[in-house]
Amino acid sequence: MTAEPHGGTLVDATASRPDEADDLPALTLTDDEYMDLEMLGTGAYSPLDGFLTRADFDNVLEDARLDDGTPWSLPVVFSTEGDVPNQKHALVHDGEIVGSVDVEETWLYDEDRWAREVLGTTDDDHPGVRRIRSLGETLVGGTVELYVESEEAGYERRYTPREARAEFDGNGWHSVVGFQTRNPPHRAHEHLQKCALETVDGLFVHPLVGSTKEGDMDPGVRLHAYDALLDEYYADDRVTLGTLKAPMRYAGPREALFHALVRQNYGCTHFIVGRDHAGVGDYYGSYEAHDYLREFEDELGVEPLYFEYAFYCHACDGMATAKTCSHDDEVRDNPSGTKIRRAGRRGENVSEKLVRPEVWDVIRDELRGESAGSEKTASLRTGGS
């Protein structure tokens, strides 16, 4: 039995495109807004059935709750310039009508208030702050319909929440732990996943492949790196790998709660929360997300599993955390995405104790661009097999 959807009902806002859609006034979606429309339409953002109205928006900013008190930590909004009439509008992306919004209200908003309440900073160096500042001056609230889902890139393996739940049920999994990532896997990720998997029936590795900040690795590389890891080092019938096409907000603790709720909608009964979950730079404390989620635990239908930072201990001869290892820093080797990327670009090797060799082959080839003309790299970049 998978987890009950957040709010009790899995939203379905998909619909066939009506003939009259061509006659509706049109609003244009950005790439991020189209991703959010797909998440709304398929129920991934349940209980939301549209872009937030002002009362919900204000409550999310102030209390991380919808107007009715339901926990919800991030604004899901559509922005434009100027006022928009309260009527149904077609939603257009790349010249195609992909959905509609039944506009209930429009309003001006305070960028700094949004950034301060949700991100904890108004610093323009924060990618989430820059994202807010890039939006139009007016927010539009109203229920939506999704007519057309975006085409999958070759590397994507998208599941809707209903498809994921059917997959888990078909596997006979009564408990499923979800894992959010935007990076290729290293041994610390593997350690956390396998520790969690010891306590549940299945693992849902669910990399986010929507828009991310400059410097994050190409999503196709991340997926192929996970393919290499799962093929060699995980039980065949205990892991499902899917992709989440949603924008990254880099909202730290707020986004940790958001990620947990979304995975609950996908059917996960448990969710891994690691060090500096959804963080960026030094904006959030290492375990601030843990403390934040604990404030909501009694209201969630998914159980957070809190993990400390994992490292390789040469004295222990294995992966460990501060809970299981008492040795000094001198014998600890810390996996680091920055360190891994730097080594790849310099043509250096990374220890097998930090990254599986099969995974490192994928990462190194991409970062060095050594095989840009080869079939392997062409496959990674185009999503071919």
Task: Tell me the CATH topology of the largest domain.
Answer: Rossmann fold
Strand residue percentage: 15-25%
CATH class of the largest domain: Alpha Beta
- What is the count of structural domains? 2
Instruction: Tell me the Rg in angstroms.
Output: 21 Å
Give the termini distance in whole angstroms. Answer: 34 Å
* Mean residue pLDDT: 92
Determine the structural class based on helices, strands and strand pairing: alpha/beta
Which range best describes the helical content: under 10%, 10-25%, 25-40%, 40-55%, 55-70% or over 70%? 25-40%
List low-confidence stretches: 370-385
The sequence of SSEs as H and E is EHEHEEEHHEHEHEHEHEHEEEEHHH
CATH architecture of the largest domain: 3-Layer(aba) Sandwich
How would a textbook summarize the main sheet? 6 strands, mixed
What is the CATH superfamily classification of the largest domain?
Answer: HUPs
Shape: globular
Number of helices: 12
Number of DSSP-assigned strands: 14
